Structure formats: C-alpha cells, structure tokens
Amino acid sequence: MKGNLHRRHLGIAIGYFAIAAVLGLLLRFFPIFSFGFNYRYMVHAHSHIALLGWVYVALTTLLHYCFVDKTTSNERYKYIFWGTQGTLIGMLLTFPFQGYALLSILFSTLFLIVSYVYTYHFWKNVDSKYKKRGSLQCVKAALVYMVISSLGPWALGAIMSTLGAQSIWYRLAIYFYLHFQYNGWMVLALIGLLLFVLEQRDLILPKKSFVRFFQAINIGIVLSFFLSTLWTEPSATFYFLGGSGAVAQLYALLYLWTLAKGKIIQLHLSKLQNVLLRTVVILTGLKMLLQLLTALPYFAQMAATYLDFTIGYLHLTFLGVISFGLFFFMDYFGLFRMSRKSYLFYFLGFLLTECLIFYKGIAAWQEWGVFSGYMSLLAICSLLILFGVLILLIQNLSKNQELHDRTL
Q: Tens digit of pLDDT for each residue in 264-291?
C-alpha cells in the first residue's frame, strides 16, 4: 500500500517526540523532586532528540514521500533511514549520562555525516517532473541551509580545545547552528511542502512572484543571523544587518501569504486541517514579530539577560510553528492523522507552558518574583503536551494495525 513505509517512519518520528517530551518533563520536575541525574546532560539529550529525532526524521520522511522517485531510491533510502536511527539511539543512550563526551560526540558526528548522505541522495533522486517547480527550489535551499548549519557543531570542537566553552565563540557557534536549522532548513522546507501541495492541484505561483519571494526569504534568512550576535553588544552595523534580515523575512512571508491564501481555500481542507494551518500562520506571525523586536538594542539585551525569553521563543518556534506545520502535512497527506482530542491536548499544553515561561521572564525583568507553586504548575501543564503526542501516536498505531489486519 502506497505510503506504508513513510507511515512507519513518521510513527518513529512521533515516538522520538514522545521521548523528548518525557525528557522535558523530567527537566520540569527536577526542581520539585530533585532527581539524581545531571540536569545539563538531560538538556542536551532533550534538545538533540527533539530536533534530530522528531523534526529531522519527520521532515526528511515527508520530503522523500513528496519529491523522490520511489522506483529507484527506496532501498538506498531505507539504509540511510536506519543509519540515522543508529546515530539517534546512540545519542539517546549517551547524552543523558555523559553530556558532551567521546561517545555522544561520535554519534552526533555520525548523524551529521548521514544527513549529508541523505541530502546527496535526495538531490540525485528527485522525480524529474518536479525539477522546475518552486517547491523544489525551496526544499533544495532548505537542505543547503541544513548543511550550512552543521558548520556550527564542527566548529565547537576546535573552539572548546582552543578558546574554551566560556568563549563568546562557543555560544555563537551554537546560535549559528540553531538559526540556520529553524529559520533556514526547517521553515523553508515546510514552505516547500506547502508549495508542493498547491502545485499538485495546479495552483502554481506566478514565476516572477515566486522569484521575488524566494530572493527576499533567502536574504532574510542570511541577514537575520546577525540578530543572534547582538548579545555581544557589537557595533550598530550588526543591529542594522540583523534588523534588515528580520524585515526581509517578515516581508517575504507576508508576501507569500497574500499570494497563497486564495489558492489554499481551493484545497478544500478538513476543519482540523484548517485549524492546524491557521495555528501555524498565527504562530509564525508572532515568531516574526518577536524576532523583529530583538533588532532593537533594548530588547536584544533583554532577551540575552533573561533566559526564559529565549527558551519561550525557541519553544514557540519548535513546539509551535514547526511541530504544528509537520502535524498539518502529516494529516494532509493521510500518513498520520491528527484527531481533535490530540490537537486540543497538545495545543492547550503548548499555550499554557508558553504563557508560564514568558510570565517568568517578564517577572524577572520587572523584579516581581513568581507565585508559589509555579514550577509544579509548569510541570503539570507540560504533561498535556506529552498526552497530546501519545494520543496521536496510539490512535494512528491502532488504525495502522486495523488496516494491516484487513489486508491479511
């Protein structure tokens, strides 16, 4: 049955999401129960499994499902996929116990190498009918940004051995990686998938309009990296470059929305798919406005001083924009269906935790002090995210089992 391979792979991606959510819960409950693990090591495990286990596996599976010629590439793709799983399991079994050390660094390095192999494989096996499409241009650019982002991790080893982890270059390398991961690779790949969906219904953007969008978004992605350097209090030039990048990105996304919104109506989405897409659009708008604010020196310093603002922004991006985007496409292609119940649990958990994280940042900024029971409430609200992911996983696994039983 078409899509069975990709359903299984998306099930594995959601499984990683559930594991990342459990690790996140352990971090939330750590101040309450004083668990006997190393907090920093667990943060490393949580972030790696969330970004590379959930988002990377889900995105690469969707890209393969949409764009790659299956007749020539499926066997090689399976080897690449399972090679990726070996590196992820290795990270899951090492990061919580040793943080950045020999084995965890080895598995992280192997993951980067396998991701390059996937990029090469994708590039060589694209179905010829998509080669002149705007969707493929976005996806190829996204993969280039993924490769560029990996310069950050490669640089970390040299920085740690020469300048040390306290050097500003250490943080800059991490921010470089994160920026080109979410603003470049992940967001642009999701845009590519949206354009693919439209193109499948012959709802193609005019060529000149697409070029205008594509140039603006790429200028925005590159220049907005300078926003990640503003915590070093550099010269005014960096503020100008970062601000220009934020404006270019915001313009590109608004322009794309004006071009696409009329065409999206013609897709005849289900009620839940409409809700998912609207959620992505609203959260993307919020993300872009927050990013634009940090181009101003006062807000740039505030984001650097109060860590909760940075954590809230990253969760808004990964748990919000990117995860809801993935949920939408998984449901739209009929590979992994989201129910109203799983959406409500996940969205409520996401919304409440975001409000609490930003509240703590505002409280620190205004020197209010947080209310008693804050950590317990945050941990309980985080449970809702895990429930949403588990409901999504269980409901789809049971449906797949039913389909399997019917075919026997």
A: 999 989 999 999 999 999 999 999 999 9
Return the structure tokens found at 74. 């499926």
From the CA atom positions of the chain, what is the Rg in Å?
A: 21
**Cα 247 to Cα 225: distance, rounded to the nearest angstrom:** 12
Question: Cα separation of 64 and 55, whole Å?
Answer: 14
Could you tell me how far CA 109 lies from the centroid of its own chain?
A: 20
Which pair of tokens denotes residue 92?
């899951």
Nearest to 371 by CA among 329, 362, 244, 76: 362
β-bridge mates for residue 68, sequence order: 126
Q: How far apart are the first and last CA of the chain?
A: 13
Residue 348 has pLDDT above 50, yes or no: yes
Give the whole-angstrom CA distance, residue 151 versus residue 177. Answer: 7
Q: What is the DSSP letter of 51?
A: I
Q: Where are the alpha helices (DSSP H) in 34-101?
A: 39-48, 57-67, 70-98
Q: Has this prediction a pTM greater than 0.85? A: yes
Q: Which DSSP string corresponds to 131-188?
A: TT-HHHHHHHHHHHHHHHHTHHHHHHHHHHHHT-TTSHHHHHHHHHHHHIIIIIIIHH
CA-based angle 61:64:66, to the nearest 5? 110
Which pLDDT belongs to residue 210?
95
Place of tokens 């030039």: 237
Q: Which 3 state secondary structure label does DSSP give 11?
A: helix
Residue type at 214 in one-letter notation: F
How far apart (Å, rounded) are the C-alpha atoms in residues 232 and 54?
32
Looking at the DSSP bridge assignments, the partners of residue 326 are none
